[in-house]
Description:
By secondary structure, the protein is mainly alpha-helical. Helix content is 74%, strand content 4%.
Amino acid sequence: MAEVGALRLGGxxxxxxxxxxxxxxxVLGAAGLTLLACLALGRIPxxxxxxxxxxxxxxxxxxxxxxQLRLPRTLLGALVGGALALSGWLLQQVMRNPLASPDTLxxxxxxxxxxxxxxAFLAADLGSRWLPxxxxxGALFAACVVYLxxxxxxxxxxxxxxxxxxxxxxxGAVTTFVLVSSPLSxxxxxxxxxxxSVYGGNWPDVGxxxxxxxxxxxxxxxxxxxxxxxxxxxxxxVGIGVRVQVxxxxxxxxxxxxxxxxxxxGGAMAFVGLVAPHLARRLVRAPGAAQVVMACVLGACLVxxxxxxxxxxxxxxxxxxxxxxxAIGAPFFLGLLLRQAS
Length: 342
C-alpha cells in the first residue's frame, strides 16, 4: 500500500498518509482486547467460552453480569477517557504548552466545585439526575472566567495557563470549604465522585454521554485544522488569515465542553487529558486526524484499565478508577516537568 493516498467524496478531496492510521488500527485492536478483558475479569472471572456464552445469552445469569453490570460500566469509562483525552489534546494545541490539560486550566476544578455544591445543597431535593448538568455548567463557567480574566487586548497562551492555575486553586479551596461544612454522608458521596469513578454505570448513562460525545465530535471535526494552526505563532497565524482570538475562544469552549461532559458522568478523573495526548504524539508524530483519534483511543484504554484494576486488585473492595489513573499520571506529570526544566 502506498504511504500517501487520496480520499475523495464528491467535490471533497484530501490526501491521507496511511502509516499513522495503521498504528491507530493496532491500538484500536488493543482497545478491543482491553474491553474483552474488562468483561471477563471481576469478582466472578469468566473463561473465554463462558464469556462468549454470556454475550450470546443476555438473559442468563452470566449474561446479566456482562450485559447489565460490566459492559455499560466499561463503555462509560471508555467514553469518559476519550472525551478527556480530546479535551487535553485541544488545550495543548491552543496553549502551545505540553503541560496544559483540563486539570491545570481550571476546567475540572470548575466542574468539581459545581458538583460538590450540587451534592451539598440540591441533591436532597432534586436527586442525582441533574448532577451531570451541574458539572458541565461548572466546567463551561470556569473556562469562560479564565478566558475573560486573561483578556488584555487579546489572549495569549501564557496568560491563559497562569490564570487557569490561579482559578483552579481558588475553586479547589471552595470545594474543600463546602466539603468540610457538609454532612458526612454528602462528603463521602462527593469525595468518591471527586476521585473519579464509573461505578454503577448503566445503559441510560452510556446513552446520554454517547449522545453528547457524538455532538462534540461533530463540532470538533471541522475545527481540527484550526486547532493545528493554533499551534503556530500568533503573528504567523494572522498572516495566513486565521482569526486567532475567535478560533482560540471557540476551541477553548469546545475543550471545556468535552471535559465537562466527561467529568459529569465519570467524576474528576485527573491526568487523563494530560497523559493520553502525549502518548498519542509519541505514536503519531505528525499532527492531524490520526493523532486525534489515537489520543481518544488511548484515553479510553487508560480509563478502562484503571477501572479494571480498581475492581479486581483489591477484592472485595471496588476502588475508584481515578486512584489508578492518578498513580500513572502523577509520575508522568513530574517527568514532563523535569524534562521541561532541563
